[in-house]
Design brief:
twelve-stranded antiparallel beta barrel, mainly beta, 12% helix
């Protein structure tokens, strides 16, 4: 479940247009852009009214988007891909996110 929280967080973070930082405390995620989420089971409920539900290797979002994780790569329904190497995730759109403890920093 820890993986789900970080992974769902990365999905939300990667969709934002500006640099931001998000931290996880228990089952709650807080981002400095005002977005927050609460994970209950396989579903994360975001403060903007959307949800993200993990089913196997897939994550389905209530806004109609989805993603699939295969090994260290993730394929998003908008055509973006990402690759995770250690604590860093590299996105095909040039974005980079780094995990440090319970926080994710993106630029």
């Amino acid at each position: 479940m820890r993986f789900l929280g970080i992974w769902a967080l990365t999905i939300v973070v990667s969709s934002q247009a500006v640099a931001q930082t998000c931290s996880k405390a228990g089952s709650t995620v807080y981002c400095d852009n005002g977005l927050s989420g609460q994970r209950l089971g396989d579903t994360t409920y975001w403060s903007n009214g959307t949800t993200s539900t993990r089913q196997g290797y897939w994550t389905h979002n209530s806004n109609g988007t989805s993603s699939q994780r295969v090994g260290n790569s993730t394929y998003y329904s908008d055509g973006t891909t990402s690759y995770q190497a250690g604590n860093t995730t590299y996105f095909s759109n040039g974005r980079t996110c780094r995990r440090s403890g319970n926080s994710v920093y993106c630029d």
